[in-house]
């Protein structure tokens, strides 16, 4: 090889190395350097560990510090999703393998990020039993393009995330942090954001936590959790839920619910395990853990542990002890469409604890008769009505509150659905219409653009008031923003009468 040609080859090789590890893709965080990748005008960092793998002796323990590294760690593929049941047939793929080693998060930022961008931290749904940050519909690219640093997180699920047992109570590892390991993971991820997000161009003083379904329930729990206080400055609840009491660690709840410890004993008996030894608990095989009985339609539930969960959720809101942050919240237009008979039966069982047959008769006029009640009661009780009531409490406690309803219905879904179902808002909020459950049209793109503008401006300023969009009024006087096939517009909620009648019955029992 002649010398000029050799020099040319070396020069090209050097440029290739620089391109592969440009300053835009290199970030140093507290545990070591990361190398992300550029995707058009966004830089993404996937599979960043925010805690040590919660496996072996760390199963059913509070999240522990991650081991540091020195060489640049590739951050170009998602970390494992947390261990969970296999997805239902027809369900969306997780985008990653499942494992107990799953405490990873992801970051998207504009490629030309200026400093101090607002931060949005996404908490996925799935009844605290399923889901992952790697699901394609929650890709952060489109939101990052609008000028935020988007973070999505994993957290332990199901029996690995929400569980206790007399042996764990006696051990009291980690200063007595017990039962709510999934919630502890969410707090640990928010602490990671406070320590590290400035390295990605994010502003740790402008963090918005947002989630859908169990992710929104998680946001509600974080708003009530002392260790999460000060880790975020705004919150968004998309189809949040929960009514009733939480289990206590070692005694029955006021409504007679078994203690979390007794639940743990009963779960293990179902797989023929009886023990008082934490070593045996942590030595259960993955196969044994996956054989534990399913958690049903209500999914996993936190327990009152005196640290991360100090009281029942509705008590916190009634007493005005939730985080004093601006709040956006709402639901889709038909959260619970026609579902399988077994799921419908479970819904009705849950409703029966709060609504009697006489109560249903009282509700018939405001629902337009039996057909209207059958079509909408589960949606309103579980999601939409609960969001209105919690929003009104937050507003009465003196905090900025903004409500919405997502009623857009893709043309491809209109023939089979009466309204937008649970999770139907996700592709609009994330701008991921190409992986939505239905074919999307130009009008869907327009609604998605509006939703992303409102969500990003709320993260930026604490007010959903983007330039050149209709003003979003306070939730006072039953005002909402309606996202429908015509776009986004402020209206007075036309479902107020039925929500109010339902709230008079079920809110005092919640």
CATH class category name: Alpha Beta
Overall average pLDDT = 92
Total helical elements = 17
**Which class best fits the helix and strand makeup?**
alpha/beta
CATH architecture: 3-Layer(aba) Sandwich
Number of individual domains: 1
Whole-number radius of gyration?
A: 23 Å
Shape: globular
Residues in β-strands, percent: 15-25%
Strand order of the largest sheet: 3-4-8-10-9-11-12-13-14-15-16
User: Could you give me the name of the CATH homologous superfamily?
Assistant: Alpha/Beta hydrolase fold, catalytic domain
Q: Helical residue percent? A: 25-40%
CATH T-level fold name: Rossmann fold
β-strand number? 16
Structure description:
The structure is a single chain. The protein is α/β, with parallel strands linked by helices. It has a single domain, classed as Rossmann fold (3-Layer(aba) Sandwich), CATH 3.40.50. 34% of the residues lie in helices and 16% in strands. It contains 17 helices and 16 strands. It has helices at residues 3-20, 141-145, 158-161, 166-171, 173-176, 181-196, 214-224, 260-269, 278-283, 286-291, 313-318, 341-352, 357-363, 370-396, 426-430, 442-461, 496-506, and strands at residues 26-29, 32-35, 37-39, 42-49, 73-74, 81-82, 98-99, 104-110, 117-123, 149-153, 202-212, 234-238, 327-332, 401-406, 479-484, 487-492. The strands form 3 sheets. The protein has an 11-stranded mixed beta sheet, with helices on both faces. A hairpin with a 2-residue loop joins strand 3 and strand 4 (42-49). Helix 14 crosses helix 17. The protein is globular and about 60 Å long. Mean pLDDT is 92; it is low at 1-20.
């Amino acid at each position: 090889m002649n010398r000029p040609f050799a020099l040319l080859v070396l020069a090209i090789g050097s440029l290739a190395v620089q391109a592969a590890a440009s300053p835009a893709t290199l970030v140093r965080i507290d545990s070591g350097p990361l190398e992300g990748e550029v995707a058009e005008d966004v830089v993404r960092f996937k599979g960043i560990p925010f805690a040590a793998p919660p496996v072996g002796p760390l199963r059913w323990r509070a999240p522990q510090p991650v081991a540091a590294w020195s060489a640049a760690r590739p951050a170009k593929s998602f970390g494992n999703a947390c261990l969970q049941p296999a997805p239902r047939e027809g369900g969306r793929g997780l985008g990653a393998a499942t494992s107990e080693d799953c405490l990873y998060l992801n970051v998207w930022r504009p490629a030309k990020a200026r400093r101090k961008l607002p931060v949005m931290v996404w908490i996925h749904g799935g009844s605290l039993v399923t889901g992952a940050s790697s699901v394609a519909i929650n890709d952060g690219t489109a939101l990052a393009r609008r000028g935020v640093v988007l973070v999505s997180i994993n957290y332990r699920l199901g029996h690995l995330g929400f569980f206790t047992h007399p042996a764990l109570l006696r051990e009291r590892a980690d200063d007595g942090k017990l039962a709510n390991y999934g919630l502890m993971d969410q707090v640990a991820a928010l602490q990671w954001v406070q320590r590290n997000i400035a390295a990605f161009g994010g502003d740790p003083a402008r963090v918005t936590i947002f989630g859908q379904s169990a992710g929104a329930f998680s946001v509600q729990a974080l708003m009530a959790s002392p260790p999460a206080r000060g880790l975020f400055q705004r919150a968004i609840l998309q189809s949040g839920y929960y009514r009733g009491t939480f289990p206590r660690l070692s005694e029955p709840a006021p409504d007679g619910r078994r203690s979390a410890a007794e639940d743990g004993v009963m779960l293990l008996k179902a797989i023929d395990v009886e023990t008082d030894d934490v070593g045996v608990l942590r030595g259960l095989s993955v196969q044994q853990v996956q054989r534990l009985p399913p958690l049903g339609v209500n999914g996993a539930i936190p327990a009152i542990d005196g640290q991360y969960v100090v009281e029942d959720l509705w008590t916190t809101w009634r007493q005005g002890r939730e985080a004093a942050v601006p709040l956006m919240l709402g639901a889709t237009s038909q959260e619970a469409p026609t579902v399988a008979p077994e799921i419908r039966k479970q819904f009705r069982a849950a409703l029966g604890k709060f609504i009697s047959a006489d109560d249903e008769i009282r509700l018939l006029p405001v629902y337009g008769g039996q057909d209207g009640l059958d079509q909408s009661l589960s949606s309103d009780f579980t999601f939409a009505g609960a969001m209105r009531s919690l929003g009104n409490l937050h507003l009465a406690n003196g905090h900025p509150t903004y409500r919405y309803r997502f009623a857009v219905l893709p043309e491809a879904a209109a023939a089979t659905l009466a309204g937008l179902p649970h999770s139907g808002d996700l592709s609009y909020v994330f701008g991921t219409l190409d992986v939505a459950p239905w074919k999307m049209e130009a009008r869907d793109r327009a609604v998605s653009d509006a939703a992303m503008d409102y969500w990003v401006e709320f993260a930026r300023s604490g007010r959903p008031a983007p330039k050149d969009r209709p003003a979003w009024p306070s939730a006072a006087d039953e005002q909402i923003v309606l996202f429908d096939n015509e776009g986004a517009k402020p209206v007075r909620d036309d479902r107020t009468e039925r929500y109010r009648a339902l709230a008079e019955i079920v809110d005092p029992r919640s």
